Amino acid sequence: MTILGFILYLIVAAACAWLAEYMVPGTIPGGFLTSAIVGIIGAWIGVSLLGALGPSLGGVPLLPAIIGSALLVFISSLFARRVFTR
């Protein structure tokens, strides 16, 4: 993977996490870098659960990445709510 490919991968993963943030009730604090990390982890979770389903952009399968990111955003927002309300 080249550096340009890696940057494209980060951008697509962050966009998937950004879309997932609007799908579920929760937020990702931290901006672009945190969204990229959540997108990468979400893509990994989504591909592990669903496989490489649907179209791919920059090496990121879009549908599993969005679903995995949505799942990760939902779980992290539940955890953050529980930790920060005490």
Helix and strand sequence: HHEEH
Report the span from N to C terminus.
44 Å
Helix content: over 70%
Q: Roughly how many Å is the radius of gyration?
A: 13 Å
Whole-number count of domains: 1
Largest sheet: 2 strands, antiparallel
Question: Which structural class matches the secondary elements?
Answer: mainly alpha
- What gross morphology would you assign? globular
Number of strands: 2
- Count up the helices: 3
Oligomer: single chain
Uncertain ranges: none
Overall residue-averaged pLDDT value: 80
Strand content: under 5%
Report on this model:
The protein is built from three helices and two strands, in the order ααββα. It has 86 residues and is mainly alpha-helical. A two-stranded antiparallel sheet has the order 1-2. Helix content is 73%, strand content 5%. The chain has one domain (3-84). The longest helix has 23 residues, at 62-84. It has helices spanning 3-23, 32-50, 62-84; strands spanning 56-57, 60-61. The radius of gyration is 13 Å and the shape is globular. The mean pLDDT is 80.
Q: Short description, anyone?
A:
The chain is mainly α and 86 residues long.
How would the blueprint of this fold be written?
Layout: H1 3-23, H2 32-50, E1 56-57, E2 60-61, H3 62-84
Antiparallel strand pairs: 1-2
Key traits:
mainly alpha; 3 helices; two-stranded antiparallel ribbon; 86 residues; 5% strand
